[in-house]
Amino acid sequence: MTGPTTYSPGLEGVLAGESAISRIDMERNSLIIRGYDLVELTNGASYEEVAYLLLYGELPDQSQLGAFLDSLRQERSLPQPLVEFLRQAPATVHPMALLRTAVSALAFWDPDAGDNSAQANIAKATRLLAKVPMIITAGHRLSQGLEPVAPHAELSQAGNLLYMLRGVEPAQHEIEAINVSLILYAEHGYNASAFAARVVTSTLSDLHSAVTAGIGALSGPLHGGANEKAMEMLLEVEGHGDPERWVAEALSEKKKIMGFGHREYKRGDSRVPSMKTVAEKIATAVNDHHWIELAGRVEETMVKEKGIHPNVDFPCSYTYYMMDIPIPLYTPIFVSSRVAGWSAHVIEQLAGNRLIRPNHIYTGHEPRPLTPLDQR
Asked: 44: burial class by Cβ within 10 Å (0-12, 13-18, 19+)?
């Protein structure tokens, strides 16, 4: 055994690189994006402004934002062969698997696919920001026997996502709710999917490959898939009828309570209050606080019994559910937001690239002789 022998399972606490994109301010218990407090961004910015901030490093002025919005509008189309692929995909395929494959395929038609310059990667990222919501909504509608809905020229990323999903213009409070969730999901440091994207990029692979890797990592229930699992859990809790007892039984059986805990936050996920505020507005609009009350009882029990607070996936799950968004689309919507963060990491990785190739501790057999086949 040679080399460093200090081992941290899951690389917890290990410094894997430098980044100017985001950090968690432990003293303030807040997430900082390019120097801005994430909560302030949810209160005073659109998702498009945050995506621009991630890609370009600064918030846009009015002219820059207008040009960026125009670029998104111009890129809201899918190659016809890709639409046919979505049409022919089995209806039982999970939307994340469909999205992963479709994003990879988009490289076939991207004029900058092989260009790894920062300018080309920003252009590719902008195209993905425009097209990913179309893949999500078209894929879902086709799986339900419905035709895709063309984007609405006057609607935002948040508004278009709902419009293309339903075929009718969403209410303003719904657009605001999705906008907040997209901002909260846009970027979060060296998380599993961002790191996966950076590892792929470090080989000098292309942005589509890196984003595809990010989607693969995000699909797991210990990462982005947690929002889907959290809602499935809440449905199970509702069926049980006694949230406090359900949590107690789950804890005694060593079950993982989905939507709770976060490796980076010791005093609770700083994104949760913003998402809870959105959830309250949606509950008021639909005149039904059932899910908020049920989730509150689960949360109170978890804090009391284990001292573990919810992460952003927990309130996001029941917020989307109250908006009648199909559960399998929760993580794909996360992807539609995180494309901006992943792309920022790709661009940053390339700017000072070194192949990411960590060492490991070998735990296998020591050298041993080869036994001939007829003697084994």
From this structure: exposed
The single residue listed with the structure tokens 């939507």 is: 259
Residue 137 domain flag: yes
Residues 254 and 135 in one domain: no
Please state the pTM of the whole predicted model.
0.93
* 236 and 177 inside one domain: no
> Computed from CA positions of residues 258, 326, 45, 339, in that sequence, does the dihedral angle turn out positive or negative?
positive
Range of the domain at 39: 19-220+328-351
Please report whether residue 376 resides in a domain: no
Residue 143 vs residues 27, 169, 172, 276, 320: alpha-carbon distances, Å? 47, 21, 27, 31, 20
Question: Is residue 24 classed as helix, strand or coil in its secondary structure?
Answer: strand
- Examine the domain organization and report whether 214 and 342 are in the same domain: yes
pLDDT by position in tens, the chain (length 376): 444 567 888 787 778 889 999 998 877 878 999 999 999 999 999 999 999 999 999 999 999 999 999 999 999 999 999 999 999 999 999 999 999 999 999 999 999 999 999 999 999 999 999 999 999 999 999 999 999 999 999 999 999 999 999 999 999 999 999 999 999 999 998 999 999 999 999 999 999 999 999 999 999 888 878 899 999 999 999 999 899 999 999 999 988 888 887 666 666 788 999 999 999 999 999 999 999 999 999 999 999 989 889 999 999 999 999 999 999 999 999 999 999 999 999 999 999 999 999 888 889 999 999 999 999 9
CA angle 164/168/172 to nearest 5° reads: 95
CATH number of the structural domain spanning residue 346: 1.10.580.10
Residues belonging to the active site: 223, 262, 313
